[in-house]
Sequence to fold (255 residues):
Amino acid sequence: MSDRLNKFLARAGVASRRKCDQLIREGRIWVNGELTTNPAFQVRKEDQVFYNGKRIVIEENLTYLQFYKPRDCLTTLKDPRARRTIKDYFSGFPYRIFPAGRLDWESEGLLILTNDGNLTYFLTHPRFEVEKKYLAYVSGAIDQAQIDSLQQGIVWKDTSYHIRRGKILQRKGDISVVELVLTEGKKHEVRIMLDYLGYPVLRLIRNQMGPIKLDPGLLPGEWRFLTPEELTRLQQMMKNKEKGEMAGRIEKDDR
Fold:
C-alpha cells in the first residue's frame, strides 16, 4: 500500500497539500536518502521520508477540535516578531495540530485544528467550495441590494472577490450586522468587499465552516474536541463532494 508523496506529507501535518507540492519541487524532501521532487512519488510504508533533516511519520492519533480564535492573535504556530499566536493556547497539547484555514489578526471565531492533512486540504481548497459563514458588524446602514451585488463580485487590485449569499440581520443606528457566506478563503476578502461598498468592518466573526458551527458555549481563547456527530458530518460531506467530483469526471469522459 502506498500514498502520493504530497498526500503523505499533508497527512503527517507538514503543511497543506498545495504547500507540500511547493516544498517537494523546491527540493526540500528526501526519501530513502535521495532527493525527490515529484509530488506524485509513491511512498510505501517502509520508506523513510525527511523534511529539513527531520524524519516525517504519520501520526496515528488523529485529533479534531474547534477553537474560538480571539482578536489580536495570529493563525500560525510561530511568529518571528513574538506576537501572540494560536500556539499560545495549546502549549501543553500532546499532539502536533495545525489550523485548517486562517483568520486574520483582527478577526475572531471558529477555527478547526487537526493533524489530519486530508481534512485540512478538503476544508481549504477552493475546488471543494466548502461554505464559511461570517457575522460582520459594519459602520453604516447597508442595504440588501448592496449585499446582493457582491454575489456578482468586485475586482480590487486585479483580484476578484464575491460572496455566495448574504443577508442583513440587524440595523441599529449607524451599525449594521450582516451575515455573509463565502467559499474561496482569499486573504481579507470580507473586509475588502465591505470596504469597497463603503462600510468598514468593525468586528468580524466566523461562526461556521461546512457543517461545523461555532459552539456558543465557547469564549474567545477556549476550545473543545469535535463531537463524534460533528466528525461524522464532516466525513460525510467529504465523501459526498468526492463522489460528486468523480461523477462529474465520468460524465465528462463519456461525452
